[in-house]
Write a structure and sequence with these properties.
3-stranded mixed β-sheet, binds flavin-adenine dinucleotide, 4-stranded antiparallel β-sheet, globular, Butyryl-CoA Dehydrogenase, subunit A, domain 3, 3 domains, alpha+beta, 387 residues, 11 helices, 9 strands, Butyryl-CoA Dehydrogenase, subunit A, domain 2, 15% strand, Butyryl-Coa Dehydrogenase, subunit A, domain 1
Amino acid sequence: MERDIYDEDHEAFRDLVRDFVKRYVTNEARARWDADGEVDRATMRAAAEAGILGLSVPEEHGGGGMLRDYRFRTVVNEEIVAAGAGSLAGAFGIQDDLAVPYLVHMGTPEQQAKWLPRMATAEVIGALAMTEPGAGSDLRGIRTTAKKVDGGYLVNGAKTFISSGATADLVVTFVKTGEGNRPDAFSILLLEDGMPGFEHHRKLEKLGFHGHDTAEMSFTDVFVPDENLLGGVEGHGFIQLMTNLPLERLSIGVAAVAAAQAAFDWTLAYTTERQAFGERIADFQNTRFRLADVAATVDALWAYVDRAVVAYGNGKLSAEEAAKVKFWTTEREWEVLDTCLQLFGGYGYITEYPIARAFADARVHRIYGGSNEIMRDIVSRKLVGRR
Ligand SMILES: Cc1cc2nc3c(=O)[nH]c(=O)nc-3n(C[C@H](O)[C@H](O)[C@H](O)COP(=O)(O)OP(=O)(O)OC[C@H]3O[C@@H](n4cnc5c(N)ncnc54)[C@H](O)[C@@H]3O)c2cc1C
């Protein structure tokens, strides 16, 4: 089904992204990112230079000024994922959808002026650190503390599973500044790589997204100056997190749909090429029916997620709607990827094939950004009027 959310500007932008993909998303580059467990900085800087990264940074700070128009980011996701580079798409997403928006929406003018121009060029890579070894879904259970001292805070604790966590220069960090677990007991501090006592630890070995770093980090008496308190207000950490959650969840939804589309395209091409029993795999009725199912699912996914992209642009994507989008698209993505992989036979299991890598990458979409159980909890509480 033809989609209708893009105009000429988005299609012209797509050409830019395709040009970047042709130059930088080579088999050699993908293999290097996977082997290193991270995307190299030169590629990130080239993407920023090409104008396809740093999209969410306002123009006055040197970026694309497209934080509200998520259609541009959707184009980036489509093209990079179609090129079999989920890890690169993930690295872009952390910068543009997770780290930068905190500064744009909630940073003080000084924080914005200090960080955003360098985030626009990828000289500074950002990350968002909420999860801890003992607290993921239940964020009020975090134990990283920030104790007020003269001129700043002393931070102690540890975070885990942090995307871009090994390479980040600036970590938007969720900490406890008060007693108990009331919402106003939490704040967000901007931790900088190189602050004494701030250590990035090992990159975690993952099932998928091998080319994008996910790391642990620890803080031992890290002195963080007052000027690094996000927005200059203590006790607003929870509200600040809530502000960006719809975008974070929309971003996972779009990545999931882009992966489902790519899987369908690869599978159609493969099954109309490969032969068995003297016929194309696509000529078996089972294959045709599966392809028809997937084609309809992908159409429905785009119709839904495109609507969410537009709603986000109009400032109308609520936390509950974003949670619905996140769990529904990622569940369908998983079914699509599984169906498609099956149609590749043994080659579907070989990581040389993009379908195998996309399948492994897809699994975490149902877990991170708020697990799909937590998403259903948010949606269903609203439905039944339970707090
Ligand atoms: C590759 C990867 C990248 C990540 N990137 C980041 C990042 O950049 N920044 C960051 O802060 N975090 C990140 N995370 C962490 C991620 O957001 C958490 O793993 C996720 O929120 C789940 O938390 P948990 O792992 O502690 O699981 P738990 O909270 O321990 O949950 C375990 C299981 O219990 C279920 N469960 C928990 N509570 C409920 C409930 N109330 N009702 C029903 N079921 C429930 C969960 O759904 C899950 O199935 C990342 C994780 C991974 C794997």
